[in-house]
Prior knowledge:
By secondary structure, the protein is an alpha+beta fold. It has helices spanning 59-69, 72-77, 94-101, 120-129, 135-147, 169-184, 190-200, 340-353, 365-374, 376-386, 389-405; strands spanning 8-14, 31-37, 48-51, 80-84, 88-90, 109-113, 157-164, 205-207, 217-219, 230-235, 247-250, 252-254, 257-263, 271-276, 281-288, 296-299, 301-304, 307-310, 315-319, 328-337. A seven-stranded mixed β-sheet has the order 3-2-1-4-7-6-8, sandwiched between helices. A hairpin with a 2-residue loop joins strand 12 and strand 13 (257-263). Helix 9 (365-374) packs antiparallel against helix 10. The longest helix has 17 residues, at 389-405. Mean pLDDT is 82; it is low at 352-365 and 374-388.
Amino acid sequence: MEKKKDKICVYTCITGNYDNIHEIENKESGVDYLLFTNNKEIKSDTWDIIYIEDDSLDNQRLSRKIKMLGHEEIDKNYDISVWMDASVAFKKSIKEFVSKYFDSEKAPFSSFVHHARNCIYKEALACIKYNKDTKENIDKHIDFLKKEGFPPNMGLYEMTVFIKEHNNKKVKETMKLWFDMVCNHSKRDQLSFVYCVWKTGLKINPIELNVFDNSWFSWSKHNFSKEIKEYRVYFGDEENYKIENDIRGKYKVVGNKYIIDVKVPINTDKVKVEMSKVPCVKYKNISINRVDEKDIQIINSIDYNGNKIFYNDSSIIIINKKINENDKFHLEVIFEKMALDDIYNFVDYLGYNLVKATDLSYKNKEEIEILKKKNLELENKLDGILNSKGWILLERARSIRRKIRK
Length: 406
């Protein structure tokens, strides 16, 4: 009989209702799949469910605890473990992935290099800008790192998927310090990991692939808010952008009309508004005081059946116009959430009209590249849709609809 020690453990964690479970399409011999959760409603035909509790931790940090410290079931039964966020699903052999990217004799830990940055301090600014944690928490976190003498440009890793020899002494020391950091400082684990490696001297094998675009696994979206509530306004371009000039707020809602009224904090010639975190939203009648239509650029939008649709969960309006400090910025827009049947039809439109009509599978990059050379207009649409998290959501909806039709 095969010992568990000879197996690879793949593990993930879902706390609360943050993620949907992804059943494993092709279970691999020699691989065990463990899903840790505090949600008693979660059941699975392909994962081994292990229920966890810790009243001292919120859902996010409970998930981090499993991610970083693992669990006694992993420690006592396996030598190698692969963490994967619940939003990830492997498309290819996990054993091949481990064989290719993990060698414990060289390093007991393998992780993806960050796709965009190589510095915790730069990542901290991005986390503030995109509201990943409060500015106060991140500022305190950065102050701590500076007092510790942690240098800039020490590298950065994506902690979405990693491989580790979890009983290795140096790995355990690093994981404990990492968990202590997210409990006592910023909850953003990427802001702590390289610091912990710097402190303990853990050797890392860098995986030189884009974690968001590779052949090994696919992505799905975390569960999202269904209500259109909040906006965020950025003032200034990338060169003179300052986080303290951002304005976050809740819309004033009158029927289907959503209204933003704010005072401009600086002289600027560029304003960017994050409109909605809800994908598949119809919009019309955008009105901005003293701004002409020609000065407005709309991102992640598409025309469909006579309607304009924000198809992504990051809908953005950019205003390219000189605006003075203390001017009133007034924006009005009519939003309408799409009914489920309308979303299904919209998904079919995107999936079949933009992809199937050109005999493409959106996963087939070679064919897409050929099409790009022939049709620049479609290139822009494909780039905007295929590289968006919203597209992943829509693909999931298409899959559900196909099952319903059967």
